[in-house]
Amino acid sequence: MAVLAQLRQEHYGYTLRKALVRRGLEIEESTLYPLLRRLESQGLLVSEWREEDKRKKRFYKLSAEGSGILARLLQEWQTINDSIDNIL
Amino acid sequence: MELLDRYFEAVRKHLPWKQQDDLLAELRANLEEQLEDKESALGRPMTGEEAEAWVKQLGSPMQMAARYQPQQYLIGPALFPIYRLVMRTALLWFTVIYVVVGVIQAAGSEYPGSALLRAAGRLPLQLLGFAAFITLSFAVAEFVAMRFSKKLPPGLPEWSPGSLPPLEGKLSGPKPRTRTQVIGGLVFSIIGLAFWLLLPIYPYLLLGLGAAYPKQIPFEFAPVCWTFYWWVAATSALQIVWRGVELALGLWPHTAGINRVAFAALALIPQSIMLFAPGHTYFTLRSTADSAQYAGTLFSLNHGVHVAFCVIVAITVLQLLGSGWQLAANARKRSMAQG
């Protein structure tokens, strides 16, 4: 969910990792980079190869289907969060 | 950095070959930029030890590559309960059949004691081979299901609470079957029939190295045994079709009692063929020249098989009567409950 939310803005693997770390979510390279491919194969992300700083990079962003799924995930997460808050 | 290049090459070996270049190009771009950031933060190139520590925390090349691939199972969680059930049942039946065949073979041999011991010694290896055969069948099923699941027609009907079996104790008779048991029964029947059909061509499936042994003994199967063989195959095929229909139409929660009666009645057909075999002759001598030497053994062998079938038929008839009685009693209870 964090990856999908962060990819509302376009990122490539390394900048995405840095952005997540800045927000307090440490995620291993061997987890994040393959995850991007899996999310793309599920249709939740779209990607393209582009050159930036003399290096070809694969940029990812949320697809239309991914936006819908993210909205549902956020709603579910919010509901669970509210319930836990009530219990605590 | 040479260490990083070596890491990429090691990862490449474990990636699917069609995607190797694409995946590695992306991984290289990300990790090289990360390396540049690290070195610019340090204000110097990384030392050998620092580089090694960084590459180590990326995970082994095999781990890194494995995460780019879908989760793989030899037998996945959906099939595993069925696999376990089939394996348990099949190994039990295999042992029973093996023991029966071993005893018959031993009876026809010159030294029954040592023949029995040899057969017992071969059993563990045979069980292992049979278990491998079942495991391989399930691994193929898993592979096909994973690879072609989107192309396969929708298989099992959706679960419905209405299909739940009646509570135990309300009705007498066999325990209600679970879906896993029904699927397990179907798979077991298919494997069993395949095994049965392959036996005459590949007798080592059951006898292993002892497959050459029956050719050396002076007896051979009488024609009635082949009639029995084909009847068993036909009734097994019929059971498979019926189990498939049960599963496809969702009938299985309600048919356990009927199945017991029907399958017992079906089993009586090949059993009766053996019981009423002309002259109770199941084995004959390969050569009439041996008749003086083996006539006694042959008589004992045929008599033993006949007695065995008398017992088997008696048990089946009792099962048939018991199941029929339960079925009738349950039908009466249901009609009384419905008023």
Distance from first to last alpha carbon of chain A: 24 Å
Q: Which structural class fits the helix and strand makeup of chain B?
A: mainly alpha
- Mean of the pLDDT scores of chain A? 92
Percent strand of chain A equals 15-25%
SSE run of chain A: HEHHEEH
Instruction: Write out the strand line-up for the largest beta sheet of chain A, numbering strands in chain order.
Output: 1-3-2
SSE succession of chain B: HHHHHHHHHEHHEH
Strand content of chain B: under 5%
Low-confidence stretches of chain A: none
Largest sheet of chain B: 2 strands, antiparallel
How much helicity do the residues of chain B have?
Answer: 55-70%
What about the largest sheet of chain A?
Answer: 3 strands, antiparallel
| Helix/strand class of chain A | alpha+beta
> Helical amount among residues of chain A, as a percent range?
55-70%
Q: What is the quaternary state of this protein?
A: heterodimer
Largest interface, and how many residues on either side? A-B, 15 and 17 residues
Poorly predicted runs of 5 or more residues of chain B: 152-156
